[in-house]
Please model this.
Amino acid sequence: MKFPYFNKFKKSNRGAIPSSSTAILYPILIPAAILSVVGLIMVYDSSVAMAIRDFQNQYYYLIEQAKWMLLGWVILPIFLFIPYRTWYPIAVPFIMVTIILLLLVFIPGLGVHALGARRWINLGFTVLQPAELAKLSLILYLSAWFSNKERKRLGAFALLISIVVGLILLEPDMGTATVTVGVAVILYFFSGAPMRHFYIMIPVCIAFIIALALISPYRLARLTSFINPEKDPLGSSYQVRQATLALGSGGIFGVGLGKSRQKYQYLPEANTDSIFAIIGEETGLVGGLTIISLYLFMLFWGYKIALRAKDAFGKYLALGITSWIVLQAGINIAANAALIPLTGVPLPLISYGGSSTIVILSALGILMNIGRS
Model:
Protein backbone atom coordinates (compact mmCIF):
# COMPACT_ATOMS: atom_id res chain seq x y z
CA MET A 1 0.00 0.00 0.00
CA LYS A 2 1.40 3.36 -1.06
CA PHE A 3 1.27 6.63 0.82
CA PRO A 4 -2.34 7.82 0.17
CA TYR A 5 -1.46 11.26 -1.25
CA PHE A 6 1.32 10.10 -3.55
CA ASN A 7 -0.82 9.45 -6.63
CA LYS A 8 -2.39 12.91 -6.37
CA PHE A 9 1.06 14.47 -5.86
CA LYS A 10 2.42 12.80 -8.99
CA LYS A 11 -0.20 14.42 -11.20
CA SER A 12 0.40 17.88 -12.57
CA ASN A 13 -2.08 20.59 -11.65
CA ARG A 14 -0.90 23.37 -13.91
CA GLY A 15 -4.29 25.05 -14.21
CA ALA A 16 -4.71 25.58 -10.47
CA ILE A 17 -2.44 28.63 -10.23
CA PRO A 18 -1.71 31.61 -12.48
CA SER A 19 0.09 30.67 -15.69
CA SER A 20 2.08 33.91 -15.72
CA SER A 21 5.66 33.38 -14.55
CA THR A 22 5.50 36.77 -12.82
CA ALA A 23 2.15 36.22 -11.11
CA ILE A 24 3.35 33.04 -9.39
CA LEU A 25 6.10 34.98 -7.60
CA TYR A 26 3.79 37.21 -5.58
CA PRO A 27 2.07 34.59 -3.37
CA ILE A 28 5.50 33.64 -2.01
CA LEU A 29 7.32 36.98 -2.31
CA ILE A 30 4.70 39.15 -0.56
CA PRO A 31 4.29 37.09 2.64
CA ALA A 32 8.08 36.59 2.80
CA ALA A 33 8.58 40.37 2.56
CA ILE A 34 5.94 41.06 5.22
CA LEU A 35 7.46 38.47 7.59
CA SER A 36 10.92 39.98 7.01
CA VAL A 37 9.73 43.48 7.89
CA VAL A 38 7.88 42.16 10.94
CA GLY A 39 11.07 40.32 11.87
CA LEU A 40 13.19 43.46 11.82
CA ILE A 41 10.64 45.36 13.90
CA MET A 42 10.24 42.58 16.45
CA VAL A 43 13.96 41.78 16.69
CA TYR A 44 14.59 45.40 17.64
CA ASP A 45 11.56 45.57 19.92
CA SER A 46 12.33 42.34 21.78
CA SER A 47 16.08 42.89 22.13
CA VAL A 48 16.34 46.46 23.41
CA ALA A 49 17.03 45.47 27.02
CA MET A 50 19.54 42.76 26.06
CA ALA A 51 21.33 45.03 23.59
CA ILE A 52 21.77 47.77 26.19
CA ARG A 53 22.90 45.26 28.81
CA ASP A 54 25.43 43.44 26.60
CA PHE A 55 26.55 46.05 24.06
CA GLN A 56 25.43 49.44 25.42
CA ASN A 57 23.70 49.94 22.08
CA GLN A 58 19.95 49.44 21.84
CA TYR A 59 20.19 49.01 18.04
CA TYR A 60 22.86 46.27 18.08
CA TYR A 61 20.60 43.30 17.24
CA LEU A 62 18.58 45.35 14.77
CA ILE A 63 21.71 46.40 12.88
CA GLU A 64 23.07 42.85 12.78
CA GLN A 65 19.76 41.38 11.65
CA ALA A 66 19.33 44.12 9.02
CA LYS A 67 22.73 43.19 7.55
CA TRP A 68 21.79 39.53 7.25
CA MET A 69 18.31 40.34 5.98
CA LEU A 70 19.73 42.64 3.31
CA LEU A 71 22.23 39.99 2.21
CA GLY A 72 19.44 37.40 2.10
CA TRP A 73 17.26 39.61 -0.09
CA VAL A 74 20.21 40.21 -2.41
CA ILE A 75 20.77 36.45 -2.72
CA LEU A 76 17.07 35.62 -3.22
CA PRO A 77 16.74 37.13 -6.73
CA ILE A 78 20.01 35.49 -7.74
CA PHE A 79 18.63 32.09 -6.77
CA LEU A 80 15.32 33.04 -8.40
CA PHE A 81 16.98 33.31 -11.81
CA ILE A 82 19.20 30.22 -11.48
CA PRO A 83 17.31 27.31 -13.12
CA TYR A 84 16.42 24.87 -10.33
CA ARG A 85 17.75 21.94 -12.38
CA THR A 86 21.22 23.45 -11.83
CA TRP A 87 21.09 22.13 -8.25
CA TYR A 88 20.53 18.52 -9.31
CA PRO A 89 24.15 17.58 -10.18
CA ILE A 90 25.59 19.33 -7.11
CA ALA A 91 23.21 17.71 -4.61
CA VAL A 92 25.72 15.00 -3.67
CA PRO A 93 28.79 17.27 -3.13
CA PHE A 94 26.55 19.75 -1.31
CA ILE A 95 25.41 17.17 1.28
CA MET A 96 29.00 15.93 1.67
CA VAL A 97 30.28 19.45 2.34
CA THR A 98 27.47 19.97 4.84
CA ILE A 99 28.40 16.81 6.75
CA ILE A 100 32.02 18.00 6.89
CA LEU A 101 30.86 21.37 8.23
CA LEU A 102 28.75 19.61 10.87
CA LEU A 103 31.91 17.79 11.97
CA LEU A 104 33.99 20.98 12.05
CA VAL A 105 31.88 22.52 14.83
CA PHE A 106 33.50 20.04 17.24
CA ILE A 107 37.07 21.10 16.43
CA PRO A 108 38.46 23.35 19.21
CA GLY A 109 39.42 26.78 17.97
CA LEU A 110 37.21 26.48 14.91
CA GLY A 111 33.92 25.50 16.46
CA VAL A 112 32.29 28.11 18.70
CA HIS A 113 31.09 26.94 22.11
CA ALA A 114 28.27 29.08 23.50
CA LEU A 115 25.22 28.55 25.70
CA GLY A 116 26.29 24.99 26.40
CA ALA A 117 26.37 23.97 22.74
CA ARG A 118 28.71 23.73 19.76
CA ARG A 119 26.63 24.84 16.80
CA TRP A 120 28.74 27.43 15.02
CA ILE A 121 31.96 27.70 13.00
CA ASN A 122 34.13 30.79 13.35
CA LEU A 123 34.98 32.01 9.84
CA GLY A 124 36.86 35.05 11.10
CA PHE A 125 34.58 37.68 9.56
CA THR A 126 31.42 35.95 10.79
CA VAL A 127 30.08 32.72 12.26
CA LEU A 128 28.23 30.00 10.36
CA GLN A 129 25.64 27.58 11.75
CA PRO A 130 25.95 24.43 9.58
CA ALA A 131 22.74 22.89 10.97
CA GLU A 132 20.73 25.58 9.14
CA LEU A 133 22.53 24.76 5.90
CA ALA A 134 21.91 21.04 6.54
CA LYS A 135 18.15 21.48 6.11
CA LEU A 136 18.50 22.86 2.59
CA SER A 137 21.29 20.51 1.51
CA LEU A 138 19.34 17.46 2.73
CA ILE A 139 16.22 18.62 0.87
CA LEU A 140 18.26 19.05 -2.32
CA TYR A 141 19.84 15.62 -1.96
CA LEU A 142 16.61 13.79 -1.15
CA SER A 143 14.80 15.56 -4.00
CA ALA A 144 17.48 14.44 -6.46
CA TRP A 145 17.52 10.93 -5.03
CA PHE A 146 13.75 10.43 -4.90
CA SER A 147 13.23 11.78 -8.42
CA ASN A 148 14.72 8.48 -9.63
CA LYS A 149 12.76 5.26 -9.25
CA GLU A 150 14.40 2.88 -6.80
CA ARG A 151 13.28 -0.02 -4.65
CA LYS A 152 14.25 -0.94 -1.09
CA ARG A 153 15.84 2.36 -0.07
CA LEU A 154 14.57 2.49 3.52
CA GLY A 155 17.92 1.28 4.90
CA ALA A 156 19.96 3.83 2.94
CA PHE A 157 17.49 6.58 3.85
CA ALA A 158 17.68 5.69 7.56
CA LEU A 159 21.50 5.64 7.43
CA LEU A 160 21.71 9.08 5.80
CA ILE A 161 19.26 10.64 8.25
CA SER A 162 21.06 9.01 11.17
CA ILE A 163 24.37 10.59 10.11
CA VAL A 164 23.03 14.10 9.54
CA VAL A 165 20.62 14.18 12.47
CA GLY A 166 23.11 12.41 14.74
CA LEU A 167 25.68 15.17 14.18
CA ILE A 168 23.05 17.83 14.85
CA LEU A 169 22.00 16.10 18.07
CA LEU A 170 25.60 15.99 19.26
CA GLU A 171 25.83 19.80 19.13
CA PRO A 172 23.17 19.48 20.78
CA ASP A 173 20.25 20.93 18.78
CA MET A 174 17.08 18.92 19.31
CA GLY A 175 14.86 21.50 17.60
CA THR A 176 16.75 21.51 14.31
CA ALA A 177 17.00 17.71 14.43
CA THR A 178 13.22 17.48 14.81
CA VAL A 179 12.58 19.76 11.83
CA THR A 180 15.14 17.88 9.72
CA VAL A 181 13.61 14.49 10.47
CA GLY A 182 10.09 15.81 9.86
CA VAL A 183 10.91 17.20 6.42
CA ALA A 184 12.88 14.09 5.44
CA VAL A 185 9.98 11.81 6.38
CA ILE A 186 7.51 13.96 4.42
CA LEU A 187 9.68 13.70 1.29
CA TYR A 188 10.22 9.99 1.81
CA PHE A 189 6.54 9.14 1.90
CA PHE A 190 5.56 11.44 -0.94
CA SER A 191 8.19 9.61 -3.00
CA GLY A 192 5.86 6.61 -3.02
CA ALA A 193 7.13 4.63 -0.02
CA PRO A 194 4.86 1.82 1.18
CA MET A 195 2.77 2.49 4.29
CA ARG A 196 4.44 -0.37 6.17
CA HIS A 197 7.61 1.74 6.30
CA PHE A 198 5.59 4.44 8.03
CA TYR A 199 4.35 1.92 10.59
CA ILE A 200 7.97 0.94 11.26
CA MET A 201 9.28 4.50 11.56
CA ILE A 202 6.70 5.84 14.01
CA PRO A 203 7.52 3.52 16.95
CA VAL A 204 11.24 3.74 16.19
CA CYS A 205 11.13 7.56 16.29
CA ILE A 206 9.10 7.56 19.50
CA ALA A 207 11.51 5.13 21.16
CA PHE A 208 14.46 7.22 19.98
CA ILE A 209 12.98 10.43 21.41
CA ILE A 210 12.31 8.74 24.74
CA ALA A 211 15.86 7.39 24.81
CA LEU A 212 17.28 10.86 24.08
CA ALA A 213 15.23 12.32 26.91
CA LEU A 214 16.34 9.65 29.38
CA ILE A 215 20.06 9.97 28.65
CA SER A 216 20.12 13.78 28.63
CA PRO A 217 19.18 15.64 31.83
CA TYR A 218 18.20 18.89 30.09
CA ARG A 219 15.97 17.09 27.55
CA LEU A 220 14.35 15.06 30.32
CA ALA A 221 13.75 18.28 32.27
CA ARG A 222 12.05 19.88 29.26
CA LEU A 223 9.85 16.83 28.76
CA THR A 224 8.82 16.60 32.41
CA SER A 225 8.20 20.36 32.57
CA PHE A 226 5.87 20.01 29.59
CA ILE A 227 3.96 17.22 31.29
CA ASN A 228 3.90 19.08 34.62
CA PRO A 229 4.60 22.82 34.22
CA GLU A 230 4.26 23.37 37.98
CA LYS A 231 7.14 21.02 38.83
CA ASP A 232 10.02 23.49 38.41
CA PRO A 233 8.58 26.99 37.79
CA LEU A 234 11.92 28.76 38.24
CA GLY A 235 13.97 26.18 36.34
CA SER A 236 13.05 23.97 33.39
CA SER A 237 9.47 25.31 33.23
CA TYR A 238 10.47 28.97 33.47
CA GLN A 239 10.77 29.85 29.77
CA VAL A 240 7.53 28.25 28.65
CA ARG A 241 5.65 29.70 31.63
CA GLN A 242 6.91 33.19 30.76
CA ALA A 243 6.01 32.65 27.10
CA THR A 244 2.45 31.62 27.91
CA LEU A 245 2.21 34.53 30.35
CA ALA A 246 3.20 36.88 27.52
CA LEU A 247 0.64 35.37 25.15
CA GLY A 248 -2.07 35.51 27.81
CA SER A 249 -1.25 39.13 28.64
CA GLY A 250 -1.77 40.11 25.02
CA GLY A 251 -5.46 39.24 24.97
CA ILE A 252 -7.28 39.96 21.70
CA PHE A 253 -5.48 43.10 20.51
CA GLY A 254 -2.28 43.13 22.60
CA VAL A 255 -0.78 45.60 25.04
CA GLY A 256 0.59 47.74 22.20
CA LEU A 257 3.68 47.68 20.01
CA GLY A 258 6.79 48.29 22.08
CA LYS A 259 4.97 47.85 25.38
CA SER A 260 5.93 44.27 26.19
CA ARG A 261 6.92 43.63 29.79
CA GLN A 262 8.37 40.18 29.21
CA LYS A 263 11.13 41.50 26.92
CA TYR A 264 12.79 43.18 29.91
CA GLN A 265 14.77 40.02 30.67
CA TYR A 266 11.82 38.10 32.08
CA LEU A 267 11.45 35.89 29.00
CA PRO A 268 14.63 34.04 27.90
CA GLU A 269 15.58 34.14 24.20
CA ALA A 270 13.02 36.88 23.57
CA ASN A 271 14.54 37.80 20.19
CA THR A 272 15.05 34.24 18.95
CA ASP A 273 13.13 31.16 20.14
CA SER A 274 10.49 33.11 22.08
CA ILE A 275 9.88 36.01 19.71
CA PHE A 276 6.37 34.80 18.86
CA ALA A 277 5.42 35.22 22.53
CA ILE A 278 6.47 38.88 22.33
CA ILE A 279 4.43 39.28 19.14
CA GLY A 280 1.43 37.78 20.90
CA GLU A 281 1.90 39.99 23.93
CA GLU A 282 2.15 43.22 21.96
CA THR A 283 -0.31 42.53 19.12
CA GLY A 284 -2.57 39.99 20.77
CA LEU A 285 -4.51 37.14 19.20
CA VAL A 286 -5.11 39.24 16.08
CA GLY A 287 -1.38 39.74 15.47
CA GLY A 288 -0.53 36.12 16.24
CA LEU A 289 -3.21 34.80 13.86
CA THR A 290 -2.00 37.19 11.16
CA ILE A 291 1.51 35.73 11.39
CA ILE A 292 0.13 32.19 11.31
CA SER A 293 -2.02 33.08 8.28
CA LEU A 294 1.03 34.29 6.36
CA TYR A 295 2.77 30.94 6.90
CA LEU A 296 -0.39 29.04 5.90
CA PHE A 297 -0.63 31.18 2.77
CA MET A 298 2.94 30.21 1.88
CA LEU A 299 2.09 26.57 2.61
CA PHE A 300 -0.87 26.64 0.21
CA TRP A 301 1.02 28.23 -2.64
CA GLY A 302 4.21 26.29 -2.03
CA TYR A 303 2.31 23.03 -2.39
CA LYS A 304 0.58 24.40 -5.48
CA ILE A 305 4.02 25.06 -6.97
CA ALA A 306 5.02 21.48 -6.12
CA LEU A 307 1.94 20.11 -7.89
CA ARG A 308 2.61 22.31 -10.92
CA ALA A 309 6.35 21.53 -11.26
CA LYS A 310 7.47 20.09 -14.57
CA ASP A 311 9.47 17.17 -13.20
CA ALA A 312 9.86 15.01 -10.10
CA PHE A 313 12.95 16.86 -8.89
CA GLY A 314 11.08 20.16 -8.93
CA LYS A 315 8.07 18.63 -7.17
CA TYR A 316 10.11 17.18 -4.32
CA LEU A 317 12.27 20.30 -4.01
CA ALA A 318 9.23 22.61 -3.77
CA LEU A 319 7.52 20.22 -1.36
CA GLY A 320 10.63 20.00 0.83
CA ILE A 321 11.31 23.75 1.02
CA THR A 322 7.67 24.57 1.77
CA SER A 323 7.34 21.83 4.39
CA TRP A 324 10.57 22.90 6.09
CA ILE A 325 9.61 26.56 6.52
CA VAL A 326 6.04 25.91 7.64
CA LEU A 327 6.90 22.94 9.86
CA GLN A 328 9.60 24.96 11.61
CA ALA A 329 7.18 27.86 12.10
CA GLY A 330 4.56 25.48 13.46
CA ILE A 331 6.97 23.91 15.95
CA ASN A 332 8.15 27.31 17.17
CA ILE A 333 4.62 28.66 17.63
CA ALA A 334 3.32 25.45 19.24
CA ALA A 335 6.24 25.40 21.71
CA ASN A 336 5.60 29.02 22.72
CA ALA A 337 1.93 28.17 23.29
CA ALA A 338 2.94 25.14 25.42
CA LEU A 339 1.29 22.73 22.97
CA ILE A 340 4.51 20.74 22.56
CA PRO A 341 7.75 20.56 24.60
CA LEU A 342 10.11 23.49 24.12
CA THR A 343 12.53 22.68 21.29
CA GLY A 344 14.36 25.93 20.57
CA VAL A 345 13.95 26.52 16.83
CA PRO A 346 13.81 30.04 15.36
CA LEU A 347 10.65 31.46 13.78
CA PRO A 348 11.48 31.65 10.05
CA LEU A 349 12.25 35.17 8.76
CA ILE A 350 11.31 36.71 12.12
CA SER A 351 13.71 35.41 14.78
CA TYR A 352 17.19 36.91 15.10
CA GLY A 353 19.80 34.81 13.31
CA GLY A 354 22.01 35.28 10.27
CA SER A 355 22.44 31.70 9.03
CA SER A 356 18.73 30.92 9.29
CA THR A 357 17.66 34.11 7.53
CA ILE A 358 20.05 33.77 4.60
CA VAL A 359 19.42 30.06 4.02
CA ILE A 360 15.63 30.45 4.14
CA LEU A 361 15.62 33.40 1.72
CA SER A 362 17.91 31.44 -0.61
CA ALA A 363 15.51 28.49 -0.46
CA LEU A 364 12.56 30.76 -1.25
CA GLY A 365 14.45 31.95 -4.34
CA ILE A 366 14.75 28.34 -5.47
CA LEU A 367 11.05 27.74 -4.73
CA MET A 368 9.99 30.72 -6.83
CA ASN A 369 12.22 29.60 -9.69
CA ILE A 370 10.39 26.27 -9.69
CA GLY A 371 7.09 28.17 -9.81
CA ARG A 372 8.06 30.33 -12.77
CA SER A 373 9.68 27.52 -14.80
In short: DSSP finds 13 helices and three strands in the chain. The chain has one domain: 6-372. The chain has a mean pLDDT of 87.
